């Protein structure tokens, strides 16, 4: 009979493959979420559909493999085959998405009349593309537990070690994807490298598996041993219930935690990567430690129940720490900058990593310990090791799916972030308490008195901590006179939207802690935001149909709706809570939502511009800074191409470009990308705002028309800044014409543009946060400022 290879090197090779599998799985997940977001939008439902299908595949794979896995004699061969199939499936996903585009166009046209069909189609696409590879992913852990476990007394150790290896790989995968592969190589090359790596690991596993055959061990039960066997009728369902509730609460915790921390850390892709990496590292550490200890525990089910109570206290304590994090960031950034001699942007990333470890690591480690403990508590004999792991993993993952949905769509919108943390801690507490009660009822009184006393003590501590930690996580900046007044605060399924007002009466709109509009109504006198809104209207003969991509506080929509001759204003806003918050700005934007010309559509701007059949005379795209995760897609070449495709022949597109918290090199990339799609681009700068205006036809602005249009704007609107804004001032705000822009970009050898594949701006600008480069950028532009306006204005307005 063949034995498991005794050479440690062979076993360590397969351990290494499973570690690499964790890396690859997380990279796949990141890329699949991005691919599907580009395909059918990035609203809350789209992201939830993608992640739910991903986790459902893991649950199905582990459950299905568990049904017959204990009969497989060469599990390493099947494991290698799964890795090969995952790699091939991953390579097919982008091509399959291209294949479904025509069908999606048809379904998208039914967006308003049949929303259920639209959502069903998105769910079907995600299932068709992701279920098969994720089922293969879910099957890998039960297969390796089958290969590595030969004695019942090793089930906890082997499960804990393998689970930890995979989680450790996932932790590395987050860091590698977010900080190395995607920023340096882009999506396509990263996908190819990831798939090729998985293919090699799979083929080598198949080769190794040729001589790795599992012997049939003699049946062993533990009734006579020092470790109690679970009672199948009463205790096994309790194990599955406990691990399912624990998995659900864990994912709800991750959702709520992420929302809280991004309001503090900012919503950059690096911030998300840091938080997820710390969470996964905690799971890894907890699983590895529990795996080494649980086989020595006499009553593993009691250990599982007690863990839930301890996790409750850890979550409540972490919620208390969360309230201290904002002050920590303010104080630690200069300290880290001095210690490591780095710019503020890099120091900020390091501080976020440090504080994430402090807040997240303990609860995550305890959560990681629950899986090997649950497997040990559930498994009765060594013959059923594969089915036991598969069943427990499936229960945990099904709970995780429900927890993610409840956390995002119920807890946050209904209870808010702070109370959601308390509710999740209470869920862990009740899970452990009820489990203990059931154990007492089925086991009878006796040797449990000390456990009962300790559990009661922990319950009391948790209740106290939860009471203390029920705090408000609104991420506003305190002023000298105290915190601002909160006019609107909504933790929605997609993001947290806040409207604050300081003592001077100025109002600010914040999304996930990032100010997207600030200083109103004073900004009405400054004019920067309104200049962006009115400029493309004044450059055209007679705009009729206008698209506003991103609502903000409604000033662009109002300017367009009031402008003479405009018949319709199509507003595309991803976040419904931004629209709901507009009651706070009705006195500033003239209650524009009540204007019959304005039509709001809750949709992803990328998705709308890719799928709509409408065309427009003017399209304004005014996204927030590209350092916010997901915003890089609103500065990409493909996005501008879709905008150009929906402009009428004489239409104009406007793009705001930041000059703060962005390096001159990244600024050039942003401008170069726009010019690549709109060669006839003009650059305008006024009131501290820089905008690009692109047209399909060569720029030839009629001076008489421009003067008349400015007069129209003054007559039709109520903005104070226009009362002082003169025609010569409007002319002087032109910085560069098309020829000057091209000369400026040609001054160095740079050719890089921002694409959906490389997302250069999204990955690089977070490290430039805190750098005050606006003066350098404007200094670089000055030598190329337009001197001869005749190629742009017809006739030359300077005369």
Proportion of strand residues: 5-15%
Count of alpha/pi helices: 25
Rg result = 29 Å
Major beta sheet, strand line-up: 7-6-5-8-9-11-10-12
Mean pLDDT: 84
How far is it from the N-terminal to the C-terminal residue, by CA? Answer: 98 Å
Give start-end ranges of low-pLDDT stretches: 221-230
Question: Helix- and strand-based class?
Answer: alpha/beta
Largest sheet: 8 strands, mixed
What is the approximate shape? elongated
Percent range of helical residues: 55-70%
The number of E-state strands comes to 12
Task: Put the structure in a nutshell.
This protein has 799 residues and is α/β, with parallel strands linked by helices.
Secondary-structure blueprint:
Blueprint: H1 8-40, H2 44-68, H3 75-108, H4 115-148, H5 155-209, H6 235-265, H7 269-293, H8 300-322, H9 325-340, H10 344-378, H11 385-443, H12 449-469, E1 485-491, E2 496-501, E3 507-511, E4 514-520, H13 523-526, H14 528-538, E5 545-549, H15 555-562, E6 568-573, H16 576-580, E7 598-602, H17 605-611, E8 616-621, H18 637-645, E9 647-656, H19 664-677, E10 680-686, E11 689-695, H20 703-716, H21 720-724, H22 727-732, E12 734-736, H23 738-745, H24 760-764, H25 774-781
Parallel strand pairs: 5-6, 5-8, 6-7, 8-9
Antiparallel strand pairs: 1-2, 2-3, 3-4, 9-11, 10-11, 10-12
Helix pairs in contact: 1-2, 1-3, 1-4, 1-5, 2-4, 2-11, 3-4, 3-5, 4-5, 4-11, 5-7, 5-10, 6-7, 6-8, 6-10, 6-11, 7-10, 8-10, 8-11, 8-12, 9-10, 10-11, 11-12, 14-15, 18-19
List the defining traits of the structure above.
alpha/beta; 799 residues; four-stranded antiparallel sheet; 25 helices; eight-stranded mixed sheet; 9% strand
